[in-house]
Amino acid sequence: MSLFEQACEVRGNAHAPYSGFKVGVALRVSSGKTFVGCNVENAAYPEGTCAEAGAISAMVASGESEIQEIWIVAEGSEPISPCGGCRQKISEFSKPDTPVILANPNGDSVRKTAGELLPDSFKPSHLEA
Ligand code: THU
User: What's the pTM value of the predicted model, to 2 decimals?
Assistant: First the structure.
């Protein structure tokens, strides 16, 4: 299954009863393994988590840390724009030229890079002051 298809499939499992806005993410790492995530909302609203966070957590729990490509799928006339926090999370495990593909379930997509989505990100090197 393509990353797009995996993202669409996992999006069906999103728990989004409050916003009604379901998001699915699929990413591939250098070993070829793929990981998926969906948003998981909570009655205590701030406790909800984004789809990107779920996929990245699954990747890290599996011992992987280098995103090669990531697809983010949500409904909309134009592809989703990931939230700021998720841009930072993606940046932690990407290179500036890592492809981040934003899509809707119809297959309309926009290809960006991690660096385009979050230029001048806060980096580990900033902690070395
Ligand atoms: N959401 C994501 O999962 N990823 C994003 O990049 C943007 C927003 C989720 C959070 C919440 O469950 C719903 O979409 C509406 O904001």
Answer: 0.96
